[in-house]
Amino acid sequence: MKTIKAILIVITTLIFAWVLPWIYDLSTDTPQNYPFTYYSSVAETFGMRKNIDGETVLKDDRGNEYSEAQFDSILPMLYYRQLARDGHLPDSLHGVDISQRLLSNESFVFRYRPRDKNSPSIPLYTLIESMPRRVDLEMPGDMFRLDDEIQFIKPETNTVDWDKSSYFNEMLNRRGFVWPANIVAGNPTTRKSYDEGYLITDNNHNLYHFKMVNSRPYLQNIELCEDVIPVWLEVTEYRSRNYYGFVISQDGRLFVIHTGGYRVEEIPVPSFNPQTDNLLIMGNLFYWNIQVTTANKRTIYAVCSNSYDRVNSITFDAPDSSDNVKKGLFPFEISFTSSNDAYVYPRVQFFGFYYLALSLLLALGYIVFTKRANRAIDYFSLILIALTGFIGVASVLTVGDLKHV
Amino acid sequence: MIKSLLYKEWIKTRWFLLAIAIAGAIIEIYMFLRVGRSIRLVGAEHIWDVVVNRDQFLFYHIKYFPLAAGIVLGLSQFIPEVIDKRIKLTFHLPLPEKTITSVMTGYGFTVLLALFLIQYVSLLAGIRSLFAFEITVTAALTLLPWFVAGICAYLACVFVCVEPSWRMRIPNFLIGVAIIRTLFISGFPGAYIKMSLFMIAITVMFTLFLWLSVYRLKIGRQ
Question: Are residues A192 and A257 in the same domain?
Fold first, then answer.
């Protein structure tokens, strides 16, 4: 029975290592925001919107402060609608005639979060007709799976459409597609202006563009450098129709696939960790603002949207989130969820040995208390308290020590 | 003797078991009626799209049913035993306490598991008749922690009810709540795919813990 009691004490300690830091965070959490930053194609520097003590401060990287109207003017690629409404949208910029329509068409936002990749998903996909007879896109009436072959399943009857499946299979096999598919990425919705189907990697990490045109399969191999192993693909389907999509490689490099020839170009930003880092691209006619956020910092790279030359960058260190009180109280915390994935499983985060001072003090207190109470010291509890400090004490107080089963 | 013990457990729990079976059947029928209606109204393709591309789980109405079923069965079986400490009389039967407790808990565990298996399999069979294999697999993974929570809730009830002192009943109850809570943290379809070992571990743990309560009852802890 002592073994079971010992297990109960340890489990209670683990529960406290989950619940107590959670309660602590719940009562002490404060927002930790980075300033909103966007590269100005007018001032050729970064414009920043900061919130300091509840006041919004608009400034640039050189320290100049702006009024709201001035800030709109230095960021016409971002605030073009406001400028157009105020009648302040310039006719041309850098020798290019601009209009609200052009700026709207050339603007895009691409966001990658590790959670996008690290989430359970159902491996069924919708292949929309890319050249519909009608103006609007329509749902095809089936879904497909890509296991050892392609199979189209009709939801209305929950059966496989063997004719369509074998027709598509024949073409995919003829093109040397190696089953099963590895990554399948697309935007299975009819709420978009056009459809470019899917970007797919096969089992050999070969990249393909796959879509349905006039009810027929279209499969195009896209050449990647040999060392590029995609871990994330994104079909863009932006209004400008300049790109088919983005590729993020296993080593955290970013590539764009151009329409017209499937030219693949690497974006010159340092590699990031697709497992933990967030990526945001806010593109416009002249520059892409590529924002890479890691646990410690956020860097924004301004990249020329034509040549992909990196023209500027700015880095912000993460707001100081080190909590010495928390580290002093808890040796570790257990959590079951993470912002980087959608899975539930226990994860342990150690806080170092800051808690040792308190835990040794508590262990000493435990010895004094038991001696005064004229009780024998329970060495299991003593070691537990010395090792885990505050949460060990909470555990022993809750379920008792090993001497009293 | 064991037959008589089992009969006693059956007498205590039969109406509650019937209630669990009927309630489970009603919830399942209700869920399929709802999904069937949705399919008739907007078409199967749209429903599949919602399930596959918008991460919606359509059979969430059953989420807390296994938990409630486990608690109801546990209480129906052990509340009569702990009132006036009648279980102590049971322990005077010419059988070892371990055997008596094993028979009692084994009975509850087995019938609950059998009921849950019937409900789980019938639910999945129904889902498979309407949806593709991949959707059924995700549904199985989403439903599993809820049914495991039901089994754990039953064992936790025994752990709490058999414990002889209120001083320990309250911590035991809170520990049970905390552990079972881990099975309801996320409703994202398939989120618990990495938790299969954890689910087995907590079931084993609750089984061990209830022995601690039995032992404390036996040695007369107050």
Answer: yes
